[in-house]
Amino acid sequence: MEFLDFSSRQRSRSLGTVFPSWKRGESVAFFAPHDDDVPLGAGYLLRAAIRRGGRPVVVIFCRGDAGFSTADAGRTIVAARKREAVQAYGKLGVPEEKLIFLGVPDFTLMSTVSRGRGSKPELFDRLVAFLRRERISRIVTTSPHFENWDHTAAFYHAVYTSSQAGDPVLADLGPPSSVRTILAYSVWSDFGPGPGEASPAADKGILASKEDERTVREALRAFRSQAAIMERTAAVDRRRRRMDDGYLELYRTVEVRRPVDYAKYAALLKTFRRNKD
Question: Which of 25, 142, 214, 244 has the fewest CB atoms within 10 Å, counting from its CB?
Fold first, then answer.
């Protein structure tokens, strides 16, 4: 398994290429809007984190109640998908106790991005407390770029709960703990445009072995109830991932709170002409 940096055109066998300054024992949260999203878009990285001494936790936001392709399946789909998820992630090396099922109805996740004020702890608070309690240092989440409303919501949860988890706020949710890296993965479509016309949309990647690809495919087959739906996703056409020396999985680094580079503005100001008013 090799790790790729498309910006610097570097490839190595170090997980630090995609997770800078990686250390064994780090906790990585994989955000899955729906149970099958992580195997579809980030299965290689999940396996890589385990092999490099990481402690992955998979957060499954939605309960999958809309994921049925025949009317009769609607009555049992939620229970069926949970069983399938446990089986699928087990094949990838994640035990059931490391799966967190939040049970949000499909296509409603965006409504949970705001912090609720009811007596019941809302999702925002639960996620901040989770990130702090587990000392999550990296988050891998879905791309927000025109895929699925729940995918966009999971991305926003990653961006905004991670920043608050590291701030000295909401002290009742635990001591602050900073997330060092957020990566977005693709399920249905390409990422948003890169920073320049010649820049690739993804800046990180993994080249995985045939064995890794075989394991991910076995995990995906565990989602038997989703077979008809997954046929329509870009990620399920695994043949297109085949490169000359492995199978390719792509990610995009998400920069949160990037500092303003005032030097650029100072240089630009020197070219200004002052008008005579």
Answer: 244
Q: Any bridge partners for residue 207, and if so which?
A: 2, 248
What is the separation of C-alpha 225 from the centre of its chain, rounded to a whole number of angstroms?
23
Q: Report pLDDT for 147.
A: 83
- 277 inside domain: no
Q: How far apart are CA 164 and CA 175, in angstroms?
A: 11
* Domain ranges, residue 110: 2-269
Q: Which pLDDT band, with edges at 50, 70 and 90, does 85 fall under?
A: very high
* pLDDT tens by residue, 2-58: 999 999 999 999 999 999 999 999 999 999 999 999 999 999 999 999 999 999 999
For residue 168, the domain's CATH number is: 3.40.50.10320
